[in-house]
Amino acid sequence: MFVSRDSERIATRAEASILHADLDSFYASVEQRDDPRLRGRPVIVGGGVVLAASYEAKAFGVRTPMNGRLARRLCPQAIVVPPRMAAYAEASRKVFEVFRDTTPVVEGISIDEAFLDVRGLRRIAGEPEMIARRLREQVRTEVGLPISVGIARTKFLAKVASAVAKPDGLRLVPAGGELEFLHPLPVERLWGVGEVTARTLHEHGITKVGQLAELGESPLRALLGPGAARHLYALAWARDPRRVETGRRRRSIGAQRALGVRHREPDEIEAYLHGLIDRLGRRLRAADRLSRTVVLRLRFADFARATRSHTLAEATDHTPTLLGAARRLLADAMPLIDDRGLTLIGLSLTNLADADPFQLSLPFEERAENTLDTTLDRLRERFGSAAVTRAALLGRGEGLSVPLLPD
Ligand SMILES: [Mg+2]
């Protein structure tokens, strides 16, 4: 895509008025709020895997997600508590009430973070910084939780600013002060710089965002490839044209298949899984969304249910990647299925993001890479969903389709 010099300015708005609000160590903070004995102490939520760690635990190097045994080795004095999802959902609901109380333009990113656009609220609510201060205060008094807020002219910078502000802080990146804020930061602060990319950059003496920006895009391309180079170079110059999206979008898409009580062989169950992921991948691409988390839902002969989920390193609409995650979840659940008998299998794709051309998060690959998926989608569009099916599904049908809301 050709980008003219003129459109390379940092943002279209004149004032830093995008807020990124992010609860600090969310689950652990809820636990510390509800049990005074946990306050000021290292707290780990989860058992086998660390779901959240309080700042006191993070000081010992505990991270999420991390193997629970390793976490306890790093921080033997940590108090480990089981997760209470209902309490977190309730806290999240209250925090989002405060968000929507602040501005009508709220884009929820996950259970504990959102972008808020406060442009145009100056006359009724004051400066963005004042609005942010009030929001933090309100979450503290009404929900009892610490929240960090970043303010900037772009989403990307607002998100970096909230991360820099943590824990329990506020950071404003004033209009015109973007590069001054961004360039001294370590390259790891940029979206898309994981361990591997960071290592490559470090090996070439690039540790700060400013060095990456000065290097220029073509030398960067030689190091990281064209997609990553374009993405990181744009971020290093703080270019990010995305708006705060208010439209109420679905948080997940799902499909399920009732199997009845008859015994099913593992390869048959896996074939149903293929059918479900094919269907969901198609809907995901039709809605121009990407998913990061695959959730497997199971119902057993005794009507008990179980869910298993896997979060990918990056959001994708690539069916084989999603299928890989789903198959691993199924393989892990197989002993349970053998034991209890399976009567329903379901899959959902959650953690959805937009797949628009300005998408600045990973994956870097061109969307044309998904050629097989695109071809299958087109055939189905033209000839109906029964026209193409994977070999494994022949003769089985795709199962009953449940009516669904548009994605
Ligand atoms: Mg958070």
Automatic annotation (TrEMBL):
PROSITE patterns: UMUC. Binds 2 magnesium ions per subunit. GO terms for biological process: DNA repair; DNA-templated DNA replication; error-prone translesion synthesis; SOS response. The record marks 27 as: Substrate discrimination. Keywords: Cytoplasm, DNA damage, DNA repair, DNA replication, DNA-binding, DNA-directed DNA polymerase, Magnesium, Metal-binding, Mutator protein, Nucleotidyltransferase, Transferase. The active site is at 113. Residues 18-194 form the UmuC domain. This is DNA polymerase IV. Its EC number is 2.7.7.7. Belongs to the DNA polymerase type-Y family. One of its GO terms (molecular function) is DNA-directed DNA polymerase activity. It catalyses: DNA(n) + a 2'-deoxyribonucleoside 5'-triphosphate = DNA(n+1) + diphosphate. SUPFAM superfamilies: DNA/RNA polymerases, Lesion bypass DNA polymerase (Y-family), little finger domain. GO terms for cellular component: cytosol. Its cofactor is Mg(2+). Monomer. Mg(2+) binds at residues 22, 112. The gene is dinB. Poorly processive, error-prone DNA polymerase involved in untargeted mutagenesis. Copies undamaged DNA at stalled replication forks, which arise in vivo from mismatched or misaligned primer ends. These misaligned primers can be extended by PolIV. Exhibits no 3'-5' exonuclease (proofreading) activity. May be involved in translesional synthesis, in conjunction with the beta clamp from PolIII. It comes from Nocardia panacis.
